[in-house]
Amino acid sequence: MSHAQANKPCHLCVGEENWLDSRTVYIGQKEPPPGAAAYIPQRYPDNRIVSSKYTFWNFIPKNLFEQFRRIANFYFLVIFLVQLIIDTPTSPVTSGLPLFFVITVTAIKQGYEDWLRHKADCSINECPVDVVQQGKAARTQSHKLRVGDVVVVKEDETFPCDLVLLSSSREDGTCYVTTASLDGESSHKTYYAVPDTKAFRTDREVESLHATIECEQPQPDLYKFVGRINVYKDTEEPVARPLGSENLLLRGATLKNTHHIYAVAIYTGMETKMALNYQSKSQKRSAVEKSMNAFLIVYLCILISKAVINTVLKYAWQWSPDRDEPWYNHRTENERQRPVVIRAFTDFLAFMVLFNYIIPVSMYVTVEMQKFLGSYFITWDEEMFDEELGEGAQVNTSDLNEELGQVEYVFTDKTGTLTENNMEFIECCVDGNVYVPHAICNGQILSAASSIDMIDSSPGGYRREHEDLFFRALCLCHTVQVKEEETVDGIKRGFHQGRPTSFYISSSPDEVALVEGMKRLGYTYLRLKDNYMEILNKDDEIERFELLHVLNFDSVRRRMSVIVKSSSGEYLLFCKGADSSIFPRVVSGKVEQVKARVEQNAVEGLRTLCVAFRRLSPDDYQEACLLLTQAKLALQDREQRLAQAYDAIERDFVLLGATAVEDRLQEKAADTIESLHKAGMKVWVLTGDKMETAAATCYASKLFRRSTQILELTKKRTEEQSLHDVMFELSRTVLRQRSMSGLSVDCLDYGLIIDGATLTAVLKSGPEGNYREVFLEVSRNCSAVLCCRMAPLQKAQIVKLIKASKEHPITLAIGDGANDVSMILEAHVGIGIMGKEGRQAARNSDYAIPKFKHLKKMLLVHGHYYYIRIAELVQYFFYKNVCFIFPQFLFQFFCGFSQQPLYDTAYLTLYNISFTSLPILLYSLVEQHVSMDTLRRDPSLYKDITKNSLLRWPVFLYWTCLGLFDAVVFFFGAYFLFDNTTFTSNGQMFGNWTFGTLVFTVLVFTVTIKLALDTHHWTWINHFVIWGSLLFYVIFSLLWGGIIWPFLNYQRMYYVFMQMLSSGPAWLSIILLITISLLPDIIKKVLCRAMCPTPTERAQSNRQCLTVEPSSIFMLSQSSSRMSF
């Protein structure tokens, strides 16, 4: 690629002076003719796609490196190494085995996922491809393609890499393509070959082509491409033609309705736009994960303080010589000569090893499994399956499941998200006269339309001319494709009563609605053939217009234009676009009448477009041609130059009229927004639409109620008053109401409307003060906010502004189009709707749902459950580890701080892996503290869990104190009950291993029964796992003690468990200590429920007992019990 700069041609195009980041592609790998630019062969990657992360050779080192970057894993590795290096009280197996288990499970999961990626890569890389070599097409494998190869692609085949179209089987050099796999748009898009290469239609002709392509280096924007093709003829200078995105065929797209094409490879393998788009997005972290890390730091501090206290007390204890070196434990000479500091540090490390189990290593793997398995509940949910799309909800990342239960702000797009994006033409207005399709029946004007001037009313000459121009404008100013024949059930339909029946396809539903509306009013767009657009007028005459230039729509200009030449030789510029972008450029026409109609339609919630035209003289046309050609040939800043050219051409319009199209609200959109409000969420609508249209949609969707007092922060208002005055007036209004609301029961409901221009001014802090804070204060006190006329980047800025406010609320963004991707990526949780504007939003989101109504269940049910489950999982893990390790700390005071373990090695190792792990994992997958119907019926229950309420410091301290209390009960209960007492029938006393086993038995039973008491939703699988894990502990202990399997007669534990169980007092003490340990928690719960119950606790007490159905294991799915294994 480094040679690309050296391959610049001798002549420079406009804007190329600074254009360095380029590449030169030699078509067919042929050198340019003598005298042209110097030929320097270049090295580009082959066409191999690699989506896998590892290879066979680097899997182990790379995976281990990534896993040990996690602090907990690295910490346990250090502990394990310390156990190996120094003489520690516990075996290295106790920390090595759990660590090995966690690392192995994670490695197997990641290795399996990567193996699947390898398989997918192989199937893609070995696909057959036809390449033109020595005048004929030869078949090769996809991964062998090189930049510059000429490829033959047949109908319904997928493009193997990014290609520039050279020629097509169609005479006009066009081809039709669907890009569904890239952006989800199933419509047929038209791509073009440059005029100088479209005549090369056979293998031999293509082989004889001499040309080079200069283009930008690969970049991920699917809709942008800048390049130029130089075609070398025999005697002439090379002909330079611009190349844009309309000439570039992207890898992954499919050829349609075209027999075959010839195209040249320009980006291959990992440099294709598809590959560049699939690179990972920035990692989002949930609030729960941040809480977990904070709690871990607290426990790490507790661990270090325990080790320090024990080390200091050990040396204080050993100050007396008879304790330092008792008669039964003489030191060696080497040990006596070791410095005290070294001995103390070694002891400190030994205590760290002894107490290290307070940090739960298995918590990470349990949380990961819970998130991964739990995410399937969303995809399995039958209520979130859409019959029309044939798809259900998708989970693109399972790391944020619990964040769905913490949302405080919802930012939603309007078109396609709240509305259906299914456009229906309602009416059009020409010079103030309104036309409604199908308002005439058998030549009679319908009574409902009696006040409307109809198209058949034989208007006067001036009006007739404008009327014809308006309908022609809408038939010509678009990018709609016509499919004139469609096969339905094997029968071809193409004509109806002798007139052609056309099927319109476009990437924009608005355009199809307008063209179909014109058809219903008597003007039918027929086809685009050989650069001529044909329309059938209402007199059944075919009119032909030569299409000269298309000035494409973009979201900044908010308009599109075409330049056409009529059969009489007249040059016409037709333009359609948003009223705000058309009216300022109009010099004549009935502006006031049209504007009044546009505003009336907008208030009714209709989408409006204005239509204008301009006659061009031959000189004007030549000037426009020159401007457009120079801009299109520019390789540096092409978009900026095109924008300047469009601005110069699109002026001095004559206004013709306006159109109104209806976009209906999605089913249950209003119900969903009402539920979100009741759940305490603030809903903001961010849209590019005009204020009146958006406001009407907000009223229809119950975002604003009729009682809502609307506060406006718009350009219109800031033109009347200064921004400073408007901001502080709004602030006073809101704050005055807030101070009064404390005295009055009826407090006003505020709604704020802001537009893009005012938002830009607000975000720029002026000399008069920082308006951001005032804006945040006002919006914080409004129940709903509408942001209209928003550019895509402004949507992301709004989300970022709210995220960074002092409360740091959890935000959710939901949208369906490419213009929503930036806000979806910016929000804590991004949800894409599988809409009609493509799949870019769904592809870049964390979750994808078919319809807006599914957001209600996603947050109020799934989000609620995910949060309470993982919150209990985290707190329970810390609690059970405090119960586990604090008795070990207390035991040191009774063994001279000699680092003697209280529990056996096997118990230390298996406590977190086997004895207590499965019950909490299952709890975190199936727990339903209240029923789904209750959560749906009462959205206010969502408020109980917001602001991370179950993982706040007071709750964490309660669980920690409960763990400390239980640990003290286990240890001192066992200690005092058995002090100076004989227990067995033969008078034998309990030893330290029996004591430790007794404490451990009480511990395992207590923490497991504590979880059983916290469980509200019982299924047979809960019973199996909870009581099964206790049974497993008993059976394992009998095995380990050599009772069941004498071969396992491990010396220090031999018959210890059996000896403990043979003692009656031991049985009594186990039952007594478990009861005492659980009693405070039970009393606290009973008192809290009786004296100050939360709404959730009230809902629990009101609901009827759940009946457990004998269904299959997939009853875990919250969607229903209908799914079977």
UniProtKB/TrEMBL annotation:
InterPro entries associated with the record: ATPase_P-typ_cyto_dom_N (IPR023299), ATPase_P-typ_P_site (IPR018303), ATPase_P-typ_TM_dom_sf (IPR023298), ATPase_P-typ_transduc_dom_A_sf (IPR008250), ATPase_P-type_domA (IPR059000), HAD-like_sf (IPR036412), HAD_sf (IPR023214), P-type_ATPase_IV (IPR006539)
PANTHER family with a match to the protein in the record: PHOSPHOLIPID-TRANSPORTING ATPASE IH (PTHR24092:SF33), PROBABLE PHOSPHOLIPID-TRANSPORTING ATPASE (PTHR24092)
Family membership: Belongs to the cation transport ATPase (P-type) (TC 3.A.3) family. Type IV subfamily.
Sequence ranges assigned to domain P-type ATPase C-terminal in this UniProt record: 842-1094
Signal peptide segment: none
Amino acids binding ATP: 413-415, 511, 553, 576, 607, 687-689, 789, 795, 819-820
Organism: Gadus morhua (Atlantic cod)
Gene3D superfamilies the UniProt entry points to: Calcium-transporting ATPase, cytoplasmic domain N, Calcium-transporting ATPase, cytoplasmic transduction domain A, HAD superfamily/HAD-like
EC number: 7.6.2.1
TM spans (from-to): 68-86, 294-317, 348-367, 906-926, 956-978, 990-1013, 1025-1048, 1054-1079
Protein name as catalogued: Phospholipid-transporting ATPase
GO terms classed as biological process: phospholipid translocation; positive regulation of myotube differentiation
Gene Ontology CC entries for this record: early endosome; endoplasmic reticulum membrane; plasma membrane; recycling endosome
Predominant location category: membrane
